[in-house]
TrEMBL record:
This is Sodium:proton antiporter. The lineage of its organism: Bacteria, Pseudomonadati, Pseudomonadota, Gammaproteobacteria, Enterobacterales. One of its GO terms (molecular function) is sodium:proton antiporter activity. One of its GO terms (biological process) is sodium ion import across plasma membrane. The chain crosses the membrane at residues 6-25, 85-108, 157-179, 185-204, 241-259, 280-298, 313-337, 361-385, 397-420. Residues 14-421 form the Cation/H+ exchanger transmembrane domain. Keywords: Antiport, Cell inner membrane, Cell membrane, Ion transport, Membrane, Sodium, Sodium transport, Transmembrane, Transmembrane helix, Transport. It comes from Enterobacter genomosp. O.
Length: 548
C-alpha cells in the first residue's frame, strides 16, 4: 500500500505543479518547480522517501519519452542536419569525456582518472525536454532547436555507452582500447537502431493482422502502441545493444512507416490525447524524482565529504561551478570550431553552423542543459567493486552530477531568455509558403475526387439522389476548394470563411451537448443514450479543434 500511495501522491503533485506555476506572481519554469516541490516533499519535515532504482527508472520512464521525441522529430530536418547532429552527439561527447575527464582528475581531489571519465561521460548527454520546459515550446529558433533535439536523442546513447566503458574498466571487467571501444560503440548503436526498426515494423504488421481478423479496436491498438517503446528497449538491451536508440528508432519508424496514417480515425484521435497525457505525467515524474533525490544526495555526500580528509566540503560547490563552466567552454568551442570548419572547408555544402552568429552559438551552448539521463546514469554506478572495496569517490561523482544538473538549469533559466530577446523563433515566411502550396495541391486532388464521386452517385440508381441537389452540393463544396487553390488572397479568404464556419459549428456542438445533459437530467433519455451521443459530439468537436 505504501508504494500505491506514493504513486498517487506523485501523480497528484505532477498534476498540480502546472497550476502552481500559473498562479505564482512570478514566472518559474515547470521543471524547476517540480524539482523544488520534490525536494520539499523529501525534506525531513514531510518525509516522503522514494527509493531510486536507476535501472527501473531507465526502463519505466526513458523509453516512452524518447519514443515520443522520436515520433515528433521531423525526419526531413533530422536527415538534413545529420552532420551537425552527429558532430554534437558523437564527436562532442568524445571531446567532453576526454577533456572534462582529465580536468576533473586534475582539479577535483580524491577522484581517480577512470571515475573522472565516468563522471564526464554521464555529464555529456543533454536534455531537450528540460530545455523546452525552462524556455517554453517554440521559443528557440527552429534551425537551432531541430539540431538540439536530434543531438539529445543521439547523445543519450553515446554518453551512456561511454559510462559503461568507464565503469567496466574501473570494475576490472574490461581492458580499454580505442579500437575495441569504437567497434563496441558502433555495434551497440547500429544494433539498437535496427532493433527499434524491426520491433516497430512487427507492430505495424500486427496492427494489420488484428484489423483483418478482429476489426479496428482503438483500445487494443493504443495499448500495443504504449507497449512498443518498452518492447523495443527491453529486446535491444536483452541482445546487448542500445535500448535507448531502439526506442528512438521505433518512434521515428512509426512516423515514416505509415502505420498511423493507415490507422482508424478513432485510434489516431485517442492515441494523440493519450500520449499527450502520458508525456506530461512522465516528464513531471522525472523532474519530481530528481527533486526527491536531492536532499538525500546532499546529506550523504556532505557527510562522506566531512569524513574524507582529502576533500573540503566547500570545494564540492566550487567544483560544480568549475565543471559546468568547463562544459560550456568545451561546447561553445566545439560549435565555434564546427562553424569555422564549415566556412573554410565545406563551401559547396556548408553545415548549418556556418551561418550561425555568435549569439546563436551562445544560445546553443547554454541550451545544453543536463537532466534525467545524467542523474540515472550517475546513480547506476555500483557502490562496490568486485573486490568488496567501495567504488572510488562515488559520493563525489553523485554530488557533482546532481549539482551540474541544477546549475545548468538555473543558468539556462537566466541566460536563455536574455539571449532569445528579439529573435524570431521560426521561419514563418517559409512555413506559410509551404502551407499555401500544400493547401492548393490538396484542394486540386479533392476537387477531382468530388467530381468522380458526383458522376458515380448520378449513375447509381440505388442511391436515389435528386440530380439538382447533387449538383448543388458538389458545386458548393468545389467552389470552396477552388477558392483555396486559386491564390494567396483567396486562400486567406477561404481560411477566414472556414474559421467562421468552424466557430459556428463549435457553438452548435456545445449547445447540443448542454441540451443532452438537460434531457438526461429531466429523465427524457437514458444514461446509455447520453454517453453514445456525447461520444459522437466529442469526436466531431475533436476534429474541429484539431484543424484550428
Amino acid at each position: 500500500m505504501e508504494i500505491f500511495f506514493t504513486i498517487l501522491i506523485m501523480t497528484l503533485v505532477v498534476s498540480l505543479s502546472g497550476v502552481v506555476t500559473r498562479v505564482l506572481p512570478f514566472q518559474v519554469p515547470l521543471p524547476l518547480m517540480q524539482i523544488a516541490i520534490g525536494a520539499l516533499l523529501a525534506w525531513p519535515t514531510f518525509g516522503l522517501h522514494v527509493e531510486f532504482d536507476p535501472e527501473l527508472f531507465l526502463v519505466l520512464f526513458i523509453p516512452p519519452l524518447l519514443f515520443a521525441d522520436g515520433w515528433k522529430t521531423p525526419t526531413r530536418e533530422f536527415l538534413e542536419h545529420g552532420r551537425e547532429i552527429f558532430g554534437l552527439a558523437l564527436a562532442l561527447v568524445v571531446v567532453t569525456v576526454v577533456g572534462i575527464g582529465f580536468l576533473i582528475y586534475w582539479a577535483v581531489p580524491g577522484i581517480p582518472l577512470i571515475p573522472a571519465f565516468a563522471l564526464a561521460a554521464v555529464l555529456s548527454p543533454t536534455d531537450a525536454v528540460a530545455l523546452s520546459g525552462i524556455v517554453g515550446e517554440g521559443r528557440i529558433p527552429k534551425k537551432i532547436m531541430g539540431i538540439l533535439q536530434g543531438e539529445a536523442l543521439m547523445n543519450d546513447a553515446s554518453g551512456l555507452v561511454a559510462l559503461k566503458f568507464a565503469v567496466a574498466v574501473a570494475m576490472g571487467t574490461m581492458v580499454f582500447t580505442v579500437g575495441g571501444a569504437t567497434l563496441e560503440f558502433f555495434k551497440v548503436a547500429i544494433g539498437g537502431i535496427l532493433a527499434g526498426f524491426v520491433v516497430s515494423w512487427l507492430y505495424g504488421r500486427s496492427l494489420r493482422f488484428l484489423s483483418r481478423w478482429g476489426g479496428d479496436e482503438p483500445a487494443t491498438q493504443i495499448v500495443l502502441l504504449f507497449l512498443l517503446p518498452f518492447a523495443s528497449y527491453l529486446i535491444a538491451e536483452h541482445i546487448g545493444v542500445s535500448g535507448i536508440l531502439a526506442a528512438v528508432a521505433a518512434g521515428m519508424t512509426i512516423t515514416r512507416s505509415g502505420v498511423m496514417r493507415r490507422a482508424p480515425l478513432a485510434m489516431r484521435l485517442r492515441a494523440n490525447s493519450t500520449w499527450a497525457m502520458l508525456e506530461f505525467v512522465f516528464n513531471g515524474m522525472v523532474f519530481l524524482l530528481l527533486g526527491l533525490q536531492l536532499p538525500g544526495i546532499m546529506e550523504s555526500s556532505l557527510v562522506a565529504a566531512e569524513a574524507d580528509p582529502n576533500v573540503e566540503v566547500w570545494m564540492l560547490f566550487t567544483d560544480v561551478v568549475l565543471i559546468y563552466l568547463a562544459l560550456m567552454l568545451v561546447r561553445f568551442g566545439w560549435l565555434w570550431t564546427m562553424k569555422n570548419f564549415s566556412v573554410r572547408f565545406l563551401k559547396k555544402k556548408p553545415m548549418e553552423f556556418g551561418s550561425w552568429t555568435t549569439r546563436e552559438l551562445l544560445i546553443a551552448s547554454f541550451a545544453g542543459v543536463r537532466g534525467a539521463i545524467t542523474l540515472a546514469g550517475v546513480l547506476s554506478i555500483p557502490l562496490l567493486l568486485p573486490t568488496g572495496d567501495v567504488f572510488p569517490a562515488r559520493y563525489e561523482l553523485v554530488f557533482l552530477a546532481a549539482g551540474v544538473i541544477l546549475f545548468s538549469l538555473f543558468v539556462g533559466v537566466i541566460m536563455l531568455p536574455i539571449l532569445l530577446q528579439h529573435i524570431d523563433a521560426g521561419d514563418s515566411t517559409q512555413q506559410h509558403k509551404e502551407e499555401r502550396i500544400a493547401r492548393a495541391a490538396t484542394a486540386e486532388v479533392a476537387i477531382v475526387a468530388i467530381q468522380k464521386m458526383e458522376e458515380r452517385l448520378a449513375a447509381d440508381a440505388e442511391e436515389n439522389i435528386d440530380n439538382q441537389l447533387l449538383t448543388e452540393v458538389s458545386s458548393r463544396v468545389i467552389g470552396n476548394l477552388r477558392r483555396r487553390a486559386d491564390g494567396r488572397n483567396d486562400v486567406e479568404s477561404s481560411l477566414q470563411e472556414e474559421n467562421l464556419e468552424r466557430r459556428f459549428r463549435l457553438a452548435a456542438l456545445r449547445s447540443e451537448r448542454a441540451e443532452l445533459y438537460h434531457l438526461r437530467a429531466t429523465r427524457q433519455i437514458s444514461n446509455e443514450t447520453l454517453q453514445k451521443l456525447l461520444h459522437d459530439l466529442d469526436l466531431l468537436e475533436a476534429l474541429l479543434i484539431e484543424n484550428q
